[in-house]
Amino acid sequence: MAKDNGIGASVKRREDARFLKGRGRYTDDMNRPGQTYAYILRSWSAHATLNSVDTSAASAADGVVRVFTGKDIEEAGLGGVPCGWEITDKHGNPMKEPAHPILAIGKVRHVGDPIAVVVAESYQQARDAAELIEVDMTDLPAVVDMRTAETIGSAVHDEATDNLCYDWELGDGEATDKAFAEAAHVTTLEFINNRLVANPMEPRCALGDYDEDADHYTLYTTSQNPHVIRLLMGAFVLSIPEHKLRVYAPDVGGGFGTKIFHYAEEAFVTWASAQLKRPVKWTSDRSEAFISDAHGRDHVTKAELAMDAEGKFLALRADTRANMGAYLSTFAPCVPTWLHGTLLAGQYLTPAVHCRVRAMFTNTVPVDAYRGAGRPEATYLLERIINKAAQELGMDQAELRRKNFIRSFPYDTPVALQYDTGDYDATLDAVLEMADYKGFEARKAESAARGKLRGIGLSCYIEACGIAPSSLVGALGARAGLYEAATIRVNPTGSVTVMTGSHSHGQGHETSFAQVVSDALGIPEDQIEIVHGDTDKIPFGMGTYGSRSLAVGGSAIVKAVDKVVAKGKKIAAHLLEAAESDIIFEDGQYKVAGTDKAKAFAEVSLAAYVPHNYPIEEIEPGLEETAFYDPKNFTYPAGSYLCEVEVDPETGKVEIVALSASDDFGNVVNPMIVEGQVHGGLAQGIGQAMLENAAYDEHGQLVSGSYMDYAMPLASDLPSFNVETAEGTPCTHNPLGVKGCGEAGAIGSPPAVVNAVVDALRDYGIDHIDMPVTPLRVWTAIQEASVKQAAE
Amino acid sequence: MYNFDYTKPTDLSAAVEALGTEGAVAMGGGQTLIPVLKQRLSAPSTLVDLSAIDSMKGIRRMGDMLVIGGGTTHGAVASSADVAAAIPGLTELAAKIGDPQVRNRGTIGGSLANNDPAACYPSAALALGATIETNQREIAADDFFQGLYTTALNEGEVITAVKFPIPTASTYQKFEQPASRFSLTSVFLAKMGDGSVRVGVTGAGADGVFRHAGLEQALSSDFSASAVDGVEVSADGMSNDLHATPAFRANLVKVMTKRAIAALS
């Protein structure tokens, strides 16, 4: 019977009541007395020398409090926006790390680069005044295409005249070359992993509020990780000591990675509020978000897969150019390297893997982590080239994968990871069954009778989540630790307040974390409050990204609960006049083993705060414990996705008729939330595969800079998903046995969709179409293939 | 948006008078104009909201004509039994514009007056040989559309109604642009009482909506998919953007026309 509470129950999300009623409290809902409004004048040129910025007319305009330019930032001696990860290149040299000023100084480097900020009594007045700013710029040749960035002769930054941030490699190049030399068959695939705009429903917002009397700063911001912002902004940009800076990220309407990063606007409003002695609020509009939120993906890759005559993988080689955009965003350098190259073993026993990544500066919006961050790019590379190999070898796509699966764990990959556990046959078997793989040919014939081309595409992904041991990521270049923290505050009457360093912005932590604590303490979920997002309330936490919240943040909660129970046992032993070693805790009761003597959790809690009869010589009063959990390894969720499409050959339109997903997330706390996370991930993955494309023209203008041209997936574009969470192989090294589920859908689905489309078009001899597989691209591919076939 | 004066007259003469103000702009449902104002791409002195003028709303059958008030919303057209009985193609067209919010605000008069090259209604007006009735005169659809966002309307001229001759059969075949869901290339096909066939194409032309003479000629003598195959639809004059090349649009004109024939067979 399905459980109705605790771990494993599909408890309805407690946060949904306020969200569905429009009562969420977002950053833009925060207003402070005397508040001013900032409007940012952004560059309309992709690359130009900034000759002069004349703000005199704007400064004199109605309602204007002050106008700031890069000169003010320079004179104040503020630091630039820091990068949180340093990559060492293949020669052992550090990456090029040019300064990223809060407001442009000397040059603008992408459309959207902030030139000046008008702070006024109202948003309208600020925006009106910004039109009076006179900017004199001299355009420079824009660097847009990564493939020509090294040779174009125009440098985004003086520090990197060839626009190369780093040239990095991973894996054994020699062993890989040797395997290729001996291979019976080599499959080659060149492709683009399309640039995406994250598009969370809530645009970014930041409100800085300086309290002159206390000399204390508060930043309200749309962040996935308020402590990371406090650390980066306080220590590196504004030199504000941490005890004088509070960062509060209240309800956040979606992040998808783009709200991890520390942005210039946050530093600006915080600093300006002290300059003006008034709160300063900036709220992005949607158009501004397109040119100022960090984008995702954007790789150009050549991949090669070497096989023996039976289709056994011998080696994989990948050569990628990754777009960094104009500046290094917080985690940008690690995305195409340690979050991409390390995943190229996938679910397969490929003995040799070599990955080279050249990160390029261009005159485009910075690119950083977006749902999956590097792992979707790796999965796409691997799962597309495997399907191309199957097509070339005339092998079944499932059988070729099965032939190469890893089946013995733990498994050390040739690209630096150790998979702790997994069962790839189980998820593959499940998805083939769920999707009636065997019945495909009959369905294809039925489609053909209606003039449609049916295709089926498989993708078997693995990801590394729960990022990760601090010592490991430190060795790889991270400038922060990646543990998580939790405080369990047991209140005198036995209710519990949980302060977590994880941040919920759609993940449902307030519900699922309460389920974890409820199970562990044997108290009802409504006795448990989850507090997050406010650095004044929570212990120092690293926030939410990389599907880490339950695996790392949840584990910290479990560790803190363990400490509470350990102390509770001491108190109970005293109350029950028993030896501490005889006390067991179960179902919310401290019991003396082998007797019917027991004290309820609430009774022990009360005793801790009313310590009249208490072992005061031995332990302190009170019941509140904090734990920091630093994982031993990544977690490795994995699964198999099968997509079925119908292509209309006359229009090139692709319809997804079925998408089945079998995921191994280890243990599952709330199956309903997990299914919802997979659905959302699938929608975003399908968005990347079929619709979304941040397209720049040769001048560095974002052509798809609004929803008129940037296609977002609608419900009507999606099938009813067939999602099952496999029994699973619990993670071996965290106390909950969980792996993380937030990104799987976005990682596994793009190659499944494209594989299905290519499968539908195989009779034309088509073996690849780049994402997004729009009607134009599919139709054009058919026309070109038809011309080629006619000529043969 | 910039500041402007706002007026919402309840009768046409007051609206026309308000439109006489320097810099005044008329608004039907505002589904194009409001986003344009928010982007600060337009700065009217006065916004004259036409949505409270009851005499410009409604759908009525007048002999062999269907008359739709200029202020009638897409939602009203899509759900009208009179429209469905007389010109089912118009029902299909209105039902596919935007989403329910757009359909409940946007108006036929606003759509025609704006003449967005990817809007749906202009193709129906052309294919059905509609007459655009304004506060000043009547204008034949063939004379009304004059290129991208350009019409025969004078300053201060308001579309009060659109008169559609009732065809013997009609259909609208829409192929959506993937992002905006406007028309990428769509065809309104009408068979008229005299046996002639008219084909209005929207979304495709670099100069906006057009009738395709070759297709009309071929289909007037042979109403079949094979007749379409025999017509050359040139890519010349088709627009080119992120979502479609001229060649793709030319292909879609033929495909959508054939689907229109199939829908009516």
Tell me what the structure shows.
The complex is a heterodimer of chains A (792) and B (265). Chain A is globular. Chain A is built from 19 helices and 28 strands. By secondary structure, chain A is an alpha+beta fold. Chain A has three domains: 18-140 and 205-283, Aldehyde oxidase/xanthine dehydrogenase, a/b hammerhead (Aldehyde Oxidoreductase, domain 3, Alpha-Beta Complex), CATH 3.90.1170.50; 299-467 and 633-791, 2-Layer Sandwich (Aldehyde Oxidoreductase, domain 4), CATH 3.30.365.10; 483-629, Aldehyde Oxidoreductase, domain 4. Chain A starts with 15 loop residues before the first helix and ends with a helix. A seven-stranded mixed β-sheet of chain A has the order 3-5-1-12-9-10-11. Chain B folds into two domains: 5-49, Uridine Diphospho-n-acetylenolpyruvylglucosamine Reductase, domain 2 (2-Layer Sandwich); 57-264, 2-Layer Sandwich (Uridine Diphospho-n-acetylenolpyruvylglucosamine Reductase, domain 3). Chain B is globular and about 55 Å long. In chain B, the strands form three sheets. A five-stranded antiparallel β-sheet of chain B has the order 4-5-8-6-7. Chain B is an alpha+beta fold and 265 residues long. Chain B has twelve helices and twelve strands. The mean pLDDT of chain B is 97. Chain B has helices spanning 12-19, 33-38, 74-78, 81-86, 88-95, 100-105, 108-114, 121-128, 141-144, 213-221, 225-229, 246-264, and strands at 5-7, 24-27, 46-49, 59-62, 65-69, 131-134, 138-140, 159-165, 169-173, 186-191, 197-202, 210-211.
Question: What would you say the CATH architecture of the largest domain in chain B is?
Answer: 2-Layer Sandwich
How would you name the oligomeric state of the polypeptide chains in this document? heterodimer
Q: How does the helix and strand content of chain B classify structurally?
A: alpha+beta
CATH superfamily of the largest domain in chain A: Aldehyde oxidase/xanthine dehydrogenase, molybdopterin binding domain
The amount of helix of chain A comes to 25-40%
Q: How many discrete structural domains of chain B?
A: 2
CATH topology of the largest domain in chain A: Aldehyde Oxidoreductase, domain 4
Strand content of chain A: 15-25%
Going across the biggest sheet of chain B, name each strand in turn.
4-5-8-6-7
Terminus-to-terminus distance of chain B: 49 Å
Give the tally of structural domains of chain A.
3
Structural class per helix/strand content of chain A?
A: alpha+beta
* Number of beta-strand segments of chain B: 12
Radius of gyration of chain A: 28 Å
- Which regions of chain B contain 5 or more consecutive residues with pLDDT less than 50? none
Which stretches of chain A are poorly predicted, pLDDT < 50 over at least 5 residues? none
